[in-house]
């Protein structure tokens, strides 16, 4: 949302542009034809919609609850306003001291803080937040925002007595910073609720309350000029995004339009103020992130409030058709939004935490435009996709990936509701998918429509359409190309579903994290990406959350970092990007195996020029159990550090017999020059195993609130390897209560290179203290050059999986009774009997009597063996050979159709070739 880019002082040009257009407006206003809208309200609803909304309230329980909540929140203030109208007006934060009723505001060159004030109005003006961030205590804690009741009436102080959120925190005088606009925004929202209630009920006490707040605001704002500074600075906020707190004002005006004229309120102030807002939102802000999109409602609401049709159309044309870009400042029109900022499936090209903010803003403004006769969704159907796309990338508990500068995030019901509304209007075929997605949100995520606000009351469909023919389904795999993010899932049940993602790239709001991993298990995201610090400039964010040590990744030589080194802000951290080498299934393609899937990614750490490679896989062992495989190579000659964080209460390290390992307190070897770029120093309470060649099992426990969940991580042993446990800072993206707890962390440190000696780990989430299924892992083969790995995983039920992974997919690997040519493969046996062969991407996989050979170098196939019947899925023609067989006939049954396959006798047995097939049953007789 924020950019670290420093704007030149020439950013003041943004103010001059705004001023020039305002002057033009004043010159033409007398000559222009003033065309009032036919009736009011008209921005989000029309007067003829009132009856339908009243019926919605009367007939729909959810709508009645929304209305009642709005009414109960504002009623105490409205009641007090009848006898003491100054009470609420005096709490509005304004410049009230004569001589200091400022009209001009000046920021520093970065647009971070106000540095000077000028001018004096004949009436109190609106206080502008003096800083772009919320206040923080000296020890790094946030403050509790005061309630309206706690505010000092007619406050003229530049400080506030604020309550620290630190444990045992006390009240102290502090600069309120963005609390200024937050407080005014709360009062504005009360006024908006009151205005809507007046429109629906006709009760004038609500209108009086809202009108008094509106007119005090408009009177003061009419004397003010946009802040002079770079183009991030706004009209009534130090930055244009903060002007969003004043979005309610055009809506209030719209609902009270007739009332304020009937009651003889002064109305000359409104048109100039709304023009200032429209101009500021049009020509300021940034186009290289989500900033401009987040401003869209303020821009559209203000423009639609202009009664001068010429001026109204002038601004709306910038929303519909014309970009206003000047040195990365300004606004992108809808055609550019779709082509530059939405992926083909509608994901905003920033972390998921930044999807809902700009997309909901675009959707709300588009709904307003549609209500005023403009075709937006019809011309830009990608908006409909953006309304529900985040669900597609979500974990089984509906949380979206936490990559980059983000907090906890999930599919926005508001976006989905607006998408359903517009899909119905245009009879778009996507309506069925949107309805199916909403059914999932309601039935599985527990979304309640009565949790909405005035927007839901006014615009949402009264009832979710029923759809018995379409069921929402998650793809097995996915890809967000801008983030180089690749995901695999197996199962969507909240408790037993498995899903991982690996990601790393340079983009806005990214983190410097190499090939970073997130893992799901036992009902939640366990191997978590931690999100962000309190602010983008807070030391903990700069030195930890945005750096390698906060992520599930590998550092090279203990000094991996972005180039140049990140020093704060919300922009890009330049770390290069990972590259996809192999993957099955590819994004949104059908999987060949019900049990296995994988990704192979490559990366060069640009700060150290270190080559790295990571293979991740899911292996499902039953409908309720399974595990992840991670093979990570890193070639730094000095050292390489494998880092994994898992939410929970505790971490214990166990030896190969599952006995506790006695750990000793230790100092982690932190780089001094440069000083610890990854941020290892922010992890506390280090303990070590000492150097050991043996394997280690890390057992993470989650036992808060009655949980009985675990993650075990089985590491293969290696010479000169040392394991450290530690307590990392809290992960703000975790579910409560783990969000506020330190994050248990393990670091496997390899002295020397870790390319020929890769980090190999098997992760298994499970419920119940002894309900793990994986007993041990064994390294079967590590090639001298480090380009091939083979491990065996032993499970309690007697099954064993041989995991085969190669960097050179065209080279033959042979050992014991198996051979392999490819990127990734799995051989599964149960009590010595072969059960399936999985060829991820490759040419051949063989074990015992059976061989699976693709006719393409990067073919994919899965063959399940059950006596003389094979169940086969393959993406290309595939040959199967069976040793010690003299069968004469082979038949393939697919989708109820049978056909014979030619059988070739070999010196060892038989072979036959299948076409590409999905769940075909081969019978050998």
UniProtKB/TrEMBL annotation:
<dbReference type="GO" id="GO:0016829">
    <property type="term" value="F:lyase activity"/>
</dbReference>
<feature type="domain" description="Heparinase II/III-like C-terminal">
    <location>
        <begin position="507"/>
        <end position="585"/>
    </location>
</feature>
<dbReference type="GO" id="GO:0030313">
    <property type="term" value="C:cell envelope"/>
</dbReference>
<feature type="domain" description="Endo-acting ulvan lyase C-terminal">
    <location>
        <begin position="782"/>
        <end position="858"/>
    </location>
</feature>
<dbReference type="InterPro" id="IPR008929">
    <property type="entry name" value="Chondroitin_lyas"/>
</dbReference>
<dbReference type="Pfam" id="PF26374">
    <property type="entry name" value="Ulvan_lyaseC"/>
</dbReference>
<dbReference type="InterPro" id="IPR058848">
    <property type="entry name" value="Ulvan_lyase_C"/>
</dbReference>
<protein>
    <recommendedName>
        <fullName>Heparinase II/III-like protein</fullName>
    </recommendedName>
</protein>
<dbReference type="InterPro" id="IPR012480">
    <property type="entry name" value="Hepar_II_III_C"/>
</dbReference>
<dbReference type="Pfam" id="PF07940">
    <property type="entry name" value="Hepar_II_III_C"/>
</dbReference>
